[in-house]
Amino acid sequence: MPDAMKTLIEQLSQLLPADCIITDEESLRPYECDGLSAYRQLPGCVLLPETLAQVQEIMRLCHQHGVPVVARGGGTGLSGGALPLAEGVLLSLTKFNRILHIDPVQRLARVEPGVRNLAVSEAVAGYGLFYAPDPSSQIACTIGGNVAENSGGVHCLKYGLTVHNVMAVKLVTVEGEVLELGSEALDSPGLDLMALITGSEGMLGIVMEVTLKLLPLPSGEQVMLVAFDTIEDAGNAVTRVIAEGIIPAGLEMMDNACVRAVEEFVHAGYPLDAAAILICELDGIDEEITAQRDRMVELMRACHAADVRIATSPEEGRRFWAGRKAAFPAVGRIATDYYCMDGTIPKKHLAGVLSRIAELSKEYGLAVVNVFHAGDGNLHPLILYDISHPGELERAEELGGRILEHCVEVGGTITGEHGVGVEKINQMCIQFSDAERQQFHAIKHAFDAKTLLNPGKAVPTLKRCAEFGAMHVHRGEMKFPDLERF
Amino acid sequence: MRAACAARTPLVIRGGGSKDFYGNPCKGEPLDVTSCRGVVSYDPSELVITVAAGTPLMEVEQTLAAAHQYLAFEPPVHNEHATIGGAIATGLSGPRRPWTGPARDFVLGVDCINGRGERLKFGGQVIKNVAGYDVSRLLTGSLGTLGVILDVSLKVLPQAETEISLIADMPLDRARKFIQDWSGRPVPISGACYYQGNLRIRLSGYESAVMHTATVMGLTPEENTSFWQQLRHQSLDLFTTGGPLWRISLPVTATAPEDFQLMDWGGALYWSKTDMPAERLRDRVKSLGGHATLYRDNGLNVPRFQPLDNGLLALHQRLKAALDPSGILNRGRMYSEF
Ligand SMILES: Cc1cc2nc3c(=O)[nH]c(=O)nc-3n(C[C@H](O)[C@H](O)[C@H](O)COP(=O)(O)OP(=O)(O)OC[C@H]3O[C@@H](n4cnc5c(N)ncnc54)[C@H](O)[C@@H]3O)c2cc1C
């Protein structure tokens, strides 16, 4: 253990109860990775503080000793954002799991960062309210992690991402100071720091309290399942729905491979012969739903839908959704390992990007299953591989990288909701110029001059991009594409 | 801009000049951005438009209206010169704000020049994008202090099928209670304000839903809906006649200011011509969880924006230095310290 860490732990043991400091290897093990388990690293130590004052003191001491700090919520992140550092502190915020205040009139909830996403909607349902961003991981991921990643969910087409649904944040700075950002009023004086903090991947401060905006629960919903014979038709249908002025609460798409995997797992009654299916949810008051549903059915028929099913009961609606919600675990059953990508593209390129993914899948000899938030063009191609086969993980990563680069080529982005973390750090070199990345570093410096908060994540150094560039000559066109790398 | 940066020449960024009145006066060489003009790309089925910053807001709105879409944050259009760049740089949002979100919620990306004269792009043209810090939303409402916006990509929304205005003559307390009760229900409210003794509610959405809600609310439909346009574009008398005008932002459950002319945003925004001394007003508003902006000074010489606490101010200064190290962009427009 390095000296700085030793001194730090000595000082911390005066401050924290013994069971809040973990240093033995066996107990550190569960913290070695987040949801991106291909990357693992034991932290120098894990701290589990219980009070704001303790967090402030931890930050002060780490700052003084120059020890880096990685915050961790539920550890469900898919980009390695909470990957520990061998010489750093892993700051787990799971003990901060209280909902501090619910204000049904202002429709706000003030919560600690370790509160699980779903717990909020459960706690406020009695008031006829809900918290809209609903990542599929919502039973396990935390609000602190959601703010750090600007997480989305299946309902964000209509209700927005985390950034649209948080009002205020209490932030502990790298020096241990408390900053109050945002407010319960609808705006605050000065710069929009809430926008900057949301999605900042634990690089700018520790989120210690969050005020969430709550919405009235829609009085009803209607779920539809629509099957298509070609991917093109499904893609066009998505574009047409939006062009016609309908914003469904959710509009999700699965390709045939995904439909098959899911059907075998949850028996949702999905048509196995469909090239793609759409799950569409409409919500609102009855009058609204009926009006939208009738238009949707007409539109889907006009877009050559092979089958349009309208759930006739809430149970049937839930069954339609069950398959979509079980997509990841279902794929987990058919493949030893899978690697989840997260690019976003303009919707009009859906069909084209899917055929490019199919080509790349062939080129790399790895199957790809597609499931995505179609309404906002956010793709989650799942690359199937087997980590026990030498070189397969590296091939999966390279294939993933090429998919993301293609997303950028068609005007999209490398990450819609999972964040850059350690995973997409190379692709940041492609999406942003040197000057843009330098600007990000300068912003980070304004919050964290010593680069102690989650260092090495989210924004690559110029050096790293230079190295990556040397290998990756031009936007995915590599030298000797047939040779194995790494 | 590189030359200005090297020589540390302060620049004053200017679009159509329709919001010259807003923010603290600042001095410098004018940098006119109205020559960056036109729609760069617009595909209604993507719900995204990219426009050059100097494009008149009216032109943007016409383009969108032709495809039955609109800017859901309803920026005020003070006159025909007002540009989209100015709307984003001020971040001002209209009556729909509590229900559909402020300007920054709709900003997806910017192409800009920072104070070093570097051309930078942040965000993009897609609705979900978490690559890198959200600099495009940070620039929204930054009053040109961090960068010159060249073009901006915005999320747009389909126009509602129907829109109606309801009115009722009632005391303030009852009006506030009425709004609070109805805001907690899933009904298509798109505006709620109180002016000259009248509560007004605007509903927008599917015709069937709007009509149904109007019936159960039991207020009187208003034939002439031009009030909402005047409210949005700030052309009601209150905005145009003399005297300092305060814009007071408060949590909806906070006590209303004693002296105000117009309540908007369902009770989260008050416009006031109070003659209470600035410091007292600001202390009081702050203790209620809000802040007060001297929106139109009309001779009152005090800082336009509520002062920031020390820690926050220092962070603002460091951020300013990160984007504009020579401090040349709209110096002092937001706060005298940067
Ligand atoms: C099966 C599955 C499905 C998923 N589905 C979705 C989905 O639909 N949509 C979506 O957006 N994401 C999804 N995710 C990704 C993930 O759940 C989200 O990114 C989530 O927000 C992470 O929350 P967490 O509490 O687990 O954070 P962690 O993984 O613990 O941390 C994530 C990042 O946040 C930082 N962090 C955590 N807490 C704080 C804090 N208090 N202050 C500062 N920084 C902090 C960490 O340092 C790290 O960089 C899914 C993941 C899985 C495993």
Describe the structure.
The complex is a heterodimer of chains A (486) and B (338). The longest helix of chain A has 18 residues, at 392-409. In chain A, strand 17 (368-373) and strand 18 (378-385) form a beta hairpin. In chain A, helix 1 (3-13) packs antiparallel against helix 3 (52-65). Chain A contains 17 helices and 18 strands. Chain A is α+β, with helices and mostly antiparallel strands. Residues 473-486 of chain A have low confidence and may be disordered. In chain A, strands 15-12-14-13-17-18-16 form a 7-stranded antiparallel β-sheet, with helices on both faces. A 5-stranded antiparallel β-sheet of chain A has the order 5-6-10-8-9. With 338 residues, chain B is an alpha+beta fold. Chain B folds into 3 domains: 2-158 and 308-323, Uridine Diphospho-n-acetylenolpyruvylglucosamine Reductase, domain 3 (2-Layer Sandwich), CATH 3.30.465; 162-232, Alpha-Beta Plaits; 244-296, no CATH class. Helices cover 28% and strands 26% of the residues of chain B. Chain B has 12 helices and 17 strands. An 8-stranded antiparallel β-sheet of chain B has the order 13-10-12-11-15-16-14-17. A 5-stranded antiparallel β-sheet of chain B has the order 3-4-8-6-7. Chain B is globular. The relative contact order of chain B is 0.14. At the A-B interface, strand 9, helix 7, helix 8, helix 10 and helix 16 of A face strand 7, helix 6, strand 9, helix 8 and helix 12 of B. Bound molecules: flavin-adenine dinucleotide. The site of flavin-adenine dinucleotide (FAD) has 36 residues of chain A, from strand 3, helix 5 and strand 10.
Provide a quick synopsis of the model.
The complex is a heterodimer of chains A (486) and B (338). Chain A is an alpha+beta fold and 486 residues long.
Give the key terms.
heterodimer; A: 486 residues; seven-stranded antiparallel sheet; five-stranded antiparallel sheet; B: 338 residues; alpha+beta; Uridine Diphospho-n-acetylenolpyruvylglucosamine Reductase, domain 3; Alpha-Beta Plaits; eight-stranded antiparallel sheet; 26% strand; binds flavin-adenine dinucleotide
